[in-house]
Amino acid sequence: MGIGIWELLLLFLIVLLLFGTKRLRNIGGDLGSAIKSFRNAMSSDGDEEKSGRTIDGEAVHENKDKT
């Protein structure tokens, strides 16, 4: 009942005719680099939380002596 292989091939052919191979290659490269950048940012964010450091590399200090 879902989308079959022939429907996907037809859709790909239409997109290929509309955009062309060069533009699809550029879009794919841009999407891949965006995903890679997002994953790197997410993994570095998790590392900073574990080490207790901020983005600029300064240590995080909590002031517990407030009265």
Question: Would you kindly provide a written description of the structure presented here, covering whatever features stand out?
Answer:
The protein is an all-alpha fold and 67 residues long. Helices cover 69% and strands 0% of the residues. The protein has helices at residues 5-19, 21-51. The longest helix is centred in the middle third of the chain and has 31 residues, at 21-51. The model has no long low-confidence stretch (mean pLDDT 79).
Write down the overall geometry: elongated
What is the string of helix and strand elements?
HH
Largest sheet: none
Helix and strand composition category? mainly alpha
β-strand number: 0
Low-pLDDT residue spans: none
Helical proportion, percent range: 55-70%
Q: Helix segment count?
A: 2
Beta-strand content bin? under 5%
The N- to C-terminal Cα distance equals: 67 Å
Rg over CA atoms = 23 Å
Average pLDDT taken over every residue:
79
Q: Layout of helices and strands, plus pairs?
A:
Elements: H1 5-19, H2 21-51
